[in-house]
Amino acid sequence: MKFCRLVLLIGALSAAACHPGPVINTGGNIVGGTIAGIVSTDGKVALPSRKVTAVNVTTGEKFETSTGTNGGYTIKVPQGTYRLEVELREGEKVSRQPDETRVQSSDLDPQRHFVITAGRGGGL
Q1: What is the pLDDT of residue 105?
Q2: What is the DSSP string of 8-40?
Q3: pLDDT averaged over consecutive 10-residue blocks of the chain (124 residues)?
Q4: Among 70, 104, 102, 106, which residue's Cα sits nearest to residue 84?
Q5: Architecture of domain 32-118
Q6: Contacts of 112 (CB under 8 A, 6+ apart)
Q7: For 14, phi and psi rounded to 5 degrees?
Q8: Where along the chain do its domains lie?
Q9: Contact 27, 100 (CB under 8 A)
């Protein structure tokens, strides 16, 4: 009898070890994609440590990341349509910004680049 319980216990533990964890319902937007681009100046200088935000135009939900040393960023988002925003510093303005982007299942939406220029009296 103890042997049967041991076999059942080992079987249960083996099955539990293969389970990835709890499954959480995120309201149908489980699978999404990735938005990627580069933030640079009009002189093509990469701008690291800039916050980039993807805002779902329907729900208002926000997803944020920061640019790397090469000015590049990637944001994983659920399916939906997103408006992209970039952090500006004093005296800066966005001279080129990506259009809204529609992310489908497993999409990679690359080349969502920003170009930032110095405004009047300001500098980068």
Answers
A1: 85
A2: HHHHHHHHHHH--S-----TT--SEEEEEEEEE
A3: 43 37 40 92 91 97 96 95 96 94 88 86 47
A4: 102
A5: Sandwich (2.60)
A6: 35, 36, 37, 84, 98, 101
A7: -65, -45
A8: 32-118
A9: no
